[in-house]
Design a protein that fits this description.
Blueprint: H1 3-9, E1 12-17, E2 20-27, E3 35-38, H2 43-54, E4 59-62, H3 74-78
Parallel strand pairs: 3-4
Antiparallel strand pairs: 1-2
Length: 80
């Protein structure tokens, strides 16, 4: 899994590079249905999905408990 999957699901073009992600300048259409994002039990991806939720995207995160390894209180703080 990769952050790029979430970015694309949000309607944005992006390209994975060796040293990061290049995000396109324009937005595509905002999804009209819920984004179901599999965090693959990676705490960083759970946190990235939380940022998308804060930006008012309807994101349901699978395996949000993965944040327990780095920030056990995150789910409560982030409202997930």
């Amino acid at each position: 899994k990769h952050t790029s999957e979430l970015i694309r699901a949000m309607g944005r073009e992006c390209h994975v590079r060796e040293d990061g992600i290049e995000i396109g300048a324009g937005w595509g259409a905002k999804p009209t249905s819920q984004i179901v994002f599999d965090s693959a039990e990676d705490h960083r991806l759970v946190m990235a999905a939380a940022v998308a939720r804060w930006a008012r995207y309807d994101v349901r995160v699978l395996h949000p408990e993965a944040v327990g390894k780095s920030y056990p209180e995150f789910l409560q703080v982030a409202g997930l």
